[in-house]
Amino acid sequence: MIRSISYGGGVQSTALLVLAAQGRIDFRTFLMANVGNDSENPATLRYLEKHAKPYATDHGIELTVLDRVKRDGSTETLMQRLARPDIRSIDIPVRMANGAPGNRSCTADFKIKVIGKELKRRGATEATPAVIGIGISVDEIHRANNRRTEPHEVITYPLLDLGLRRTDCARVIREAGLPVPPKSSCFFCPFHRPETWHDQRRDEPELFEKSCQLEDLLNERRDELGKDHVFLTRFNRPLREAIPDGVDLLPMFDAADGACDSGWCMT
What we know:
Elements: E1 3-6, H1 11-21, E2 29-33, H2 42-58, E3 62-66, H3 78-83, H4 106-121, E4 130-133, E5 153-156, H5 158-162, H6 166-175, H7 194-203, H8 205-225, H9 239-242
């Protein structure tokens, strides 16, 4: 039976990597669906190359990074998908003008299907499904959703089985001699907390500007289609205005704009 962890590059899945190296969980394969070097949090990609991959190699664990490959054999990143002039829909959970979240297919197309395709290539079938471990910790138990399994997969949550919280995961990583990784996600994800956007503007202004440019591009496309504007935050205004430069946000405004409830992202 194929047993693999869906590796997201963040705290929880890196803790799973350490636990696997220690023999505390029975997984020796980690698969990471990379939404694109132009789309993933650059800090996550740096951590992957500098720490996660060497650690996996040193402990005899396979850590494979997968790209989304189209039928013609070419690869596609999420940013490339969003920037295509012929695409009428938006595949990330932007906020519509009325405040409601838009449709989201990014997780399915760039995470679930990519890993599922690889599992089937390795022999997973409906009769002999692969076991996939997802890095959801006890403090995020609401994100665990067994109903969203594919026919060739059986989902399991090792951190829940061990009763570990996110703070426990950070401790596991530090005790293994590794630095704690940054939170993983697309750098332009509309599920960012306001404080995350604020930190990006303060600490990574070039990355913040790329996020703003993406929002501008999406709305230029919306203008051509005669549709209302969309936003990367819940504040119903452009990102540059919603996250003012040099203004510290109070903790009471640090509520999440949403959550990727499948567990395939932000782990």
